[in-house]
């Protein structure tokens, strides 16, 4: 093939567990579910508000590791969003009408 090679489209998925999760994702989800199970055993569920609070750790971590298109999961999307809005970006103009002290020929 003349020294060229083709990387398969799913090469990143081979590094993931179940082709969807990283170790961090599974540990975070496992901790959320474990906390929810412990709370279910020890907290009496007598109202809707208490039930929502008890189920919240498992639901939130499940939401964060849910896959989304163009990103790995919701957690990665939120990290990228925070990074985009919190870091300073500097764009240097390199257009046709500005030479910036250099001749671009």
What does this protein structure show overall?
It is a single chain. By secondary structure, this protein is an all-alpha fold. Helices cover 48% and strands 0% of the residues. The chain is built from three helices and no strands. The protein has helices spanning 23-42, 48-64, 74-86. α1 (23-42) runs antiparallel to α2 (48-64). It is flat and about 70 Å long.
Major beta sheet summary: none
**Number of helical stretches of at least 4 residues:** 3
Q: Name the helix and strand elements from N-terminus to C-terminus, one letter apiece.
A: HHH
Number of strands: 0
Helix content class: 40-55%
Summarize the structure.
By secondary structure, the chain is mainly α.
Which helices and strands occur, and which strands form pairs?
Layout: H1 23-42, H2 48-64, H3 74-86
Helix pairs in contact: 1-2
List keywords for this structure.
105 residues; mainly alpha
């Amino acid at each position: 093939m003349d020294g060229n090679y083709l990387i398969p489209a799913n090469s990143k998925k081979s590094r993931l567990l179940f082709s969807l999760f990283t170790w961090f994702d599974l540990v975070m989800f496992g901790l959320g579910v474990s906390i929810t199970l412990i709370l279910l055993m020890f907290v009496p569920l007598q109202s809707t508000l208490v039930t929502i609070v008890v189920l919240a750790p498992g639901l939130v971590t499940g939401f964060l590791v849910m896959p989304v298109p163009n990103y790995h999961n919701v957690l990665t999307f939120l990290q990228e969003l925070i990074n985009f809005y919190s870091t300073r970006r500097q764009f240097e103009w390199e257009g046709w009408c500005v030479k910036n002290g250099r001749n671009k020929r």
